[in-house]
User: Fold these one by one.
Assistant:
Number 1:
Amino acid sequence: MSEQLNNGIINAWADDPKGPVALHLTQILLPIEGEGGVIFPPTYADLKDYGVEKLADGRTVVTVDSVGSQANRIEPIFRREADGEPKNDLSDLVPQIDINYGESKSVSILEVGHRLGDALVRSSTLKDRANKAFAHFLDTGDSSKIAKLAPTSIVFGAWDSRDTSAKLPRILQSVIRAWDVDVIHRSAQYAPPLDYQAEGLYDADEKQQIKDKIAERGFGHVPAGNMVGGVVANGPIQRQITINLIALRRLRGDAENTQAMRRYILGLALVGATDPVDGFLRQGCLLTADPNTPSVWEAVGRDGVRSAVELTSGAALEFAKAARSAFEVAPDEQFLFDKKLAHDDLKDVLGKSKGKQ
């Protein structure tokens, strides 16, 4: 039986050192074509057949969307406007920090892959603020400066690996995997609409000499054989979502704001975790929830006991708004990309490159 949520219970998740170690949800997904439909995992230059792993028990598994990719899909929801419904506006929950470049272009820090530890941040007028926040965290263990400036860097994790080396573990983690998969292959043949040789674009000798370039530019036949053509999941396609309450309760601020900061970060994590998933991951991979397999959030105790909780997106947003009002964050700000800072960051590499010329 699910436990009816209230703010007292959610507050205890952030406050009680003996509370649950995590919140967890397993969501079963289906291809838009239905069970047994072909889906396309991501491809990588150094991995064959999508990197399908065979386990010791004979099962096969493939990552359909990685932890990092899921974080990058969820984080931008905090830029979402209300569309006339103030109660649904997520952009008020976090500072809207933009980095301007060019004549009239900008990038939101919510769309920057490495968040506060990204090269773009180091190459902008935000660098000093970010550096001081990371340094303060390393010196004191106090992450409130980061939480005030870029709270999603705590929710989804950040690693300032190229500067201070400060590292923040993810509070919210999501990943999609498909089980018991078979890789299928496909072949294709492109046939140009005209016989360009007959039209005098090139003669037979020229065709023989530059046939690869002709095909590359779309003026010749292009055969493609034995390419990966997706996978069929004979087992479940699972989205696993975890909110790490141990990592959350290890966050420290000063004596006055530690509790408020933890609750605020938890609120953001709950909103991100309960936001309806955008199942269009890439071409050939459009997933929906399985309506016949309800997903249930569970609070996992230190003893492994799992208790169902009725965690909804509405309850998460209500809690996050209250937590946001109790924790003062930085105002919305705009910073500038600075080419000189970028050059300084790359000076060793650029110097070596120039030396080879």
Number 2:
Amino acid sequence: MLLQALELPIPQYGHIALIVGDDGTPLSKRNGSQSIQELRANGWLAEGIINYLARLGHTYTEDNYLSLTELANQFAVERLGRAPAHFDAQQLRHWQQQAILQVSETQLWNWLGQAVQAQVPHDLSAQFIAAIRANISYPHEALHWAKILFSDDLITSPEAQAILLKTDSDFFTKLR
């Protein structure tokens, strides 16, 4: 009535389903919920989070990664679910990986952060991104690869070290 009295357009309202955890209880600070700031600080891309959340309690005709514009254009109030939406960490990770594959090289380079940027020579950044893009989900994973590729230190697990010590030197000569 207030909007009518002010002669403002009246929006169409829709109700988004309650988001629940594995145990069926609503997500909350005490029950597994993370804030957007926490997700961002842990290396989650906004585009991946948005693609996941858009599908939580709403159905889309396409099941592939969609831009913000595509998500908005394909949104329909009548496709909002009525049942509680179950949070699935694996699905969130899937959309994170899809976002990594879709964002621009510049955006991905910035997201990887200063630690990776300090390790990877700038003139090799495009090649580095092309090599690791499909194999990472978080910036710390990219840092791991950067250290392997651009550090003089050989990073090996104790199991790998044991195998290397048992390997005949002739193997390394042939390998070289």
Number 3:
Amino acid sequence: MRRARIKESGAAYYHVISRVIERRFALDREEKERFVRLLRKVETFSGVNVITFAALDTHIHILIHVPALQDVGDEEIGRRVEALYGGGKGLRLAAQLADLRACGQAAEAEALKMQYTRRMCDLSEFMKTLKQRLTQSYNRRHKRNGTLWEDRFRSVLLDGRRGRKGYSALAVVAAYIDLNAVRAGLVSDPKDYRYCGYGEAVAGVDAARIGLKTVLKSLGTESSWAEGAAHYRRLLYARGAIKHTEPVGPVGGDACRKGIAEGGCMKGGFAPEVVQEVLRQGGKLPLPVALRCRVRYFTNSLVLGSRLYVRDVCDRHCRHLAAQRSMHPQSLRQAAWGDLWAVGRLRPAGKMVLAVT
């Protein structure tokens, strides 16, 4: 059975995940560089906004805003096509459109534009273009055939508004994505990972900063970049900058300290038995600590947001969802998620939705 997916007809935010076929470690440093460059090209062409992203050895995460489809002028079409294809193709297209209109062939001009605009402001078309071009580029260099990617991409529809308790689903998922390299043990600080949105933003990349400003706005922060970045970093880290080798203080108390002292800390997160002990004692993980664990809510659910937002989406997409998922919003457990709810049963009985990767 194909996995259900929700796509809004208007503007919406999505967390998108796609894995390399057979979980191969195909995305080395050079491939990640190419991914970032192509990501920005497809972003420009598609007219979407990449809020943040992370490229790992075996998979990619993208947090994306897909705006409502709007009419695009001939010059703008040319600019977008040039951004993706280069070689003067966009300039030639703009000139061809101008010639058609000058000759009174407006219908032909619109039909030509439609070949490109039908691929814009659409999540599926964005991912199709990105994944196909990455596959083609990879196959040429490695002299191989076939897809680079495993199955369909996954997507989670997100509420972009600020929650009652201060955090938005958008901000929480953005932090989760930017901490991927920390969880994988590649870096101890996400600012040092150049293949994620936060690392690029700290390095001064304008496109990355523009993306994260969307996150800051969802947190109610309309300040300068420096102040807003400090706010976001506090979401990324407990007590400013927890090192993954440090005890986590009151989180889990003695059990957690004991687990870390005995080597219980794995990669950039916490050993499963340490987290299990905290939860067994009835404790909840603080948000920054929980974000260092693998959270299936962020990858396997269909919708994430406030209870009212999730309920509204369920009501509007009930026929689409009913065959595969529970239709009732469920509150997120095991951590201080604030006012976040999800759709779908994510785990068999007795298994956690928080784990260490």
